[in-house]
Design a protein that fits this description.
265 residues; 4 helices; 14% helix; mainly beta; five-stranded antiparallel sheet
Amino acid sequence: MKWMTFAGILLCCLTHEHALAEFLKNPGFETAGPALLGSSDASTGKAQIVGAIAEGWSDNTGWADVNLSYSLSADCPHSGNCAQKIEIKHGFVQFAQTVQMPGGYYRASVWLRAETPMWASLGLRQQDAPYTAYAAQPAFIGTQWTRVEARCFAPQKTAAFLLINTTGTGTLFVDDAGLTPATARSVSLKPPTAAVPKTFFGMNINHMHDEGNIPWPAVPLGAYRTWDSGIVWANIEPKKGQFDWTGLDSIKTSPKRRSEACRFC
């Protein structure tokens, strides 16, 4: 009797510890959430988002010019009965789950596959402004299941997005996600031996597609990083040594700033 009681307590503790270790809800995409009837939180109302998303997960692309269709697919999931299927007919996708992170080191992971190869990324960022990015791991996803992992440190308790992004159209399958505490990795830092070049200093430019309403600063920029603009390097250089600048060229900015965009993106 004593042994059975001890075993029961041990099993309860282990089960409780395992439950605390995983921060995500419905990480295996086995349970469906409410059906989507269409969504747009932008003034232009361009987003077309329909279908069914797994319980606990959400689409974060309603502000953009996108056409997305979600469904739970039983066609060759990584494990279990279902995987999340996302058809990106126009634009791109930001597929997310909100998590409450107590602060510390974390390991995020997800299994992805695509009908035709495409770029995707797994990241963790603050849910609200200033949208601090804690981790971002890009990966080229083929037709076989591929595990993508990202590690990060969150300095304090925060509401965050576990975020899966794509950079173009296609069909993506998502399964067996995870977010668990992790241990710190040792890092050896060496100070630079010379002054940091001025070209390394730049700024973030948000929503470059907003019809030329960007408040460009008067000071010169050595570099800049686009954010939520639907333009990433994988679109600019789809193959090594082959460049396509049409995405940046289409942005309505002054000729001078457009030239700088092409030069420093």
